Amino acid sequence: MLSKPVPEQRTFGPELSVIDGIGATLTETRPLTVVLADDHAVVRAGLRSLLTSVDWISVVAETSADGALREAVLNRPDVLILGQWRQPESAAVIGELARSAPGVAVLVFSVAEDDESVFAAIRAGAGGYLRNAADRDDLLRAICAVSAGWVVLSPHIGSRLAAMLADPARHTRPFPELTAREFDVLTLVAAGLPNAAIAAELHLAPKTVSNYLSHIFTKLGVADRANAIVRARDAGLGTSY
C-alpha cells in the first residue's frame, strides 16, 4: 500500500520559531506567497527587497492600493499586505476578498494607528494590523502568523484594544458618526481654536479644515460653528486644551 508523502517542514529560522509567545509549527511544501499593495513605489520596493531576502516567502505581485483586490483574487496569495488604511475603501476590499478569495489573509501595514482605523480593519476581517515602523522580525512574524490564522496587532494597539474590551463605556468616544480626523477637528473647535490654528496643529491645509467642518456640521445636524461648539462642549470636548 502506498503511503501519503509527508510534507516537508518549512524552517522559518530561530527568530520566528515562536510567534508572539505562541508555539507554532507550520508545514508547507511551497513558499508562503504574498501580494504587496501600496500606493508608494518606494515603499513597495523596500518591502519587496525585505521579503525576497527570506527564502520561505515569494512575492507574487505588487500593486497600488486600488489594485489590491484585483491582484489578490487573481493570484490567491497566502497573505495580502495592505500598505495603507483608507476607510471605507480598504474595509470594502477586505470584505469583498473574503467573499471572492476566502483563503487570503490580510495584514494591514500602515502609518495610521488611530483606534477607528485599527478597529475598522479588524471588524472588516483583517488578520493583523501593524504600524509601518515595525521592524523586520515583527513584520515577518506577523506575515507568518496571519497566514496560519492568528490575529496579530502591534503591542500598543493590542493593549488599547484589550482596555476597550475590558471597559467599553470608558473607551467609547462621543459622536461615533465622525471619522477620527473629523473628531480631532471638532475637539479643537470646541477648544476655541480658529481654522488656521487647527490646520497648524493637525498639519492640514486651512481649506482641508474648512471641508472637514462642513462634513461635521452635516453629520451633527447643526447650522454653524457656534452650534457645533455647544454640542461638542456638552459632550465634554475641548476641556483639555
Task: Outline the secondary-structure elements.
Blueprint: E1 18-19, E2 22-23, E3 32-37, H1 41-52, E4 57-63, H2 68-75, E5 79-82, H3 89-100, E6 105-110, H4 115-124, E7 128-131, H5 136-147, E8 152-153, H6 155-166, H7 180-190, H8 195-202, H9 206-220, H10 225-234
Concise overview:
The protein has helices at 41-52, 68-75, 89-100, 115-124, 136-147, 155-166, 180-190, 195-202, 206-220, 225-234; strands spanning 18-19, 22-23, 32-37, 57-63, 79-82, 105-110, 128-131, 152-153. The chain has 241 residues and is of the alpha/beta class.
Q: What does this entry look like structurally?
A:
- With 241 residues, this protein is of the alpha/beta class.
- The protein has 2 domains: 14-164, Response regulator (Rossmann fold, 3-Layer(aba) Sandwich), CATH 3.40.50.2300; 180-234, Arc Repressor Mutant, subunit A, CATH 1.10.10.10.
- Helices cover 46% and strands 14% of the residues.
- It has 10 helices and 8 strands.
- Strand 6, helix 4 and strand 7 (128-131) form a beta-alpha-beta unit.
- Helix 7 (180-190) crosses helix 9 (206-220).
- It is elongated and about 65 Å long.
